[in-house]
Structures are given as C-alpha cells and as structure tokens.
Write a structure and sequence with these properties.
RGS_subdomain_2, RGS13 protein, 9 helices, single chain, mainly alpha, Regulator of G-protein Signalling 4, domain 2, RGS, disordered C terminus
C-alpha cells in the first residue's frame, strides 16, 4: 500500500471505531449516489467524520449521530441526562461543539429541555442534516480525501482496504 493511504489504514484498523470487516469499493462508490447512502452505511459516518475534521465541522456529524442514539433511549431518566449533554455540548451559545442552527430551533429546544421528548432535537437534527447534505457532502465527494480512498480501493486487486 502506498504511503498516501497510511492515514486510511490507521482509520480503518482503529479498534475503537469497531471496524472488524472490510471496507469495500462497492460501499465507497455507493456513497456518491446520495448523502443518505453515505450516512447510513457501515463505515460512511466514520470516514465522513474524518473528512469533516479537515473542515473543522465534525461537530455536525457528531451531533447528528448523537441525535440518532438519543431517539432510541426509552428511559426518561436517561433521556433527560442525554438531552442535557446534547444541549451543553451542541446547542447552548458558546457550547464547546456549537452547531449552526437558527434561533427558532434553538429556542424550541431551550423551551423543551426541562421535559425532553424523543423528538426534542428533531428540528435541529434536520437542519444539520441539510447543512451537511448541501454543503460539506458535495465537497467530500470532490475531495482528494474521497478520491484517494476510491482510487486506493480500485487499484487494490481484492477491492478491500483492510485485510
């Protein structure tokens, strides 16, 4: 493997990311079909997050993924705790990972945070999804980052990145 793909090897072999099977050319090519395919694929969110770090906007995917996890919480106690974490990390002004949402969405969350529901962050999540889909996703597809990944898999005989 060429030195240009070492960054990818490190990402793909990172045990913390839970990657145990193979990143395939087929999966990587599907990412260019739609943002939905990228964000719902096995490795897409992790690779996309790595790209977003280069744009200093990885808080968007982190928030979106956290919202997906939040919606699955069934315990009201856990929901309240997670809602507060989401609020202090992403929503409140000057939050460490503050996301770019409009004032009405932010105010609605502030109103609902005391008794958060499963859908408390839906509007903010939709806004962030749209930002990513319209702004950073097209740049991702055109980036050297994605192009090198595709090229690496296309030139690798067994169409997989991890052996």
């Amino acid at each position: 493997m060429s030195p240009n793909t070492c960054w990818l090897c490190k990402i793909c072999r990172d045990k913390e990311n839970g990657i145990s099977s193979k990143l395939s050319l087929e999966e990587v090519l599907q990412w260019s079909q739609s943002f939905e395919k990228l964000i719902t694929s096995k490795y897409g969110p992790m690779i996309y997050k790595t790209y977003l770090k280069t744009e200093h906007s990885d808080e968007n995917i982190e928030f979106w993924l956290a919202c997906e996890a939040y919606k699955k919480i069934t315990s009201q106690r856990k929901r309240i705790s997670m809602a507060r974490k989401l609020f202090t990390s992403y929503i409140e002004p000057q939050a460490p990972n503050e996301i770019n949402i409009d004032s009405p969405a932010r105010k609605a969350i502030i109103r609902n945070i005391q008794e958060p529901t499963q859908s408390c962050f839906d509007e903010a999540q939709r806004i962030i999804y749209t930002h990513m889909e319209r702004d950073s996703y097209p740049r991702f597809l055109e980036s050297k980052f994605y192009q090198k990944l595709k090229h690496s898999l296309q030139t690798n005989g067994n169409n997989s990145m991890i052996n």
